[in-house]
Amino acid sequence: MAGRMMGMLRGGMVARSASGSLRLRSGMGMPVGTTPPPDKPLHIQHELIWDDGSAYPEPALDRIAAPQIGKYEALAWLCGGLSFFGLVGLLAVWNDKASKIPYTPKEYPFDNLRVELGGDPNVKRTTASV
Asked: Most buried of the four, 23, 46, 66, 130, by CB within 10 Å?
């Protein structure tokens, strides 16, 4: 009985059904069709078409007829954006609190060890004088 089960698992029913379903992708076929290789020179705007193998290829740029922005306007936007990030970086360097106080100031008990560090024990400090 066990030999018969092993035969079914190795080359029998299970292997045939798994290979058939994996090969045919559960009967659905490939996710998208393949594009045949070009046999003649491509059209000058071939790179602007998004061909995903469907019956209706789509334009990649949503049918933009003319450039929407000139090169000098693009340069101005680029310089403005880089200047903004440079200004943010400069403000971060200028307002760097970690370099001004590289450690956390410690608070000690007994009025911050005033008497232990040589202060006068007879003088009481009030919160108004601190």
From this structure: 46
Amino acid at 121: P
Tell me the DSSP string of 40-69.
SPPPTTGGGEE--SSSS-EETTSS--S-SS
Contact 57, 51 (CB under 8 A): yes
Taking every pair of Cα atoms in the chain, the longest distance, rounded to a whole number of angstroms, is 102
Query: Could you report the per-residue pLDDT of 3-24, keeping only the tens digit for each?
Result: 555 555 555 555 555 555 555 5
For residue 66, pLDDT over 90 is answered with no
Q: Note the residue count of the chain.
A: 130
Task: Give the rounded percent of residues in the chain with a pLDDT score beyond 70.
Answer: 64
DSSP states of 90-125: HHHHHT-HHHHS-SPPP--HHHHHTTTTT--TTPPP
DSSP code string of 7-48: HHHHHSHHHHHHHHHHHTGGGT--SSPPPPPPSSPPPTTGGG
Q: Could you say which DSSP state residue 127 is in?
A: T
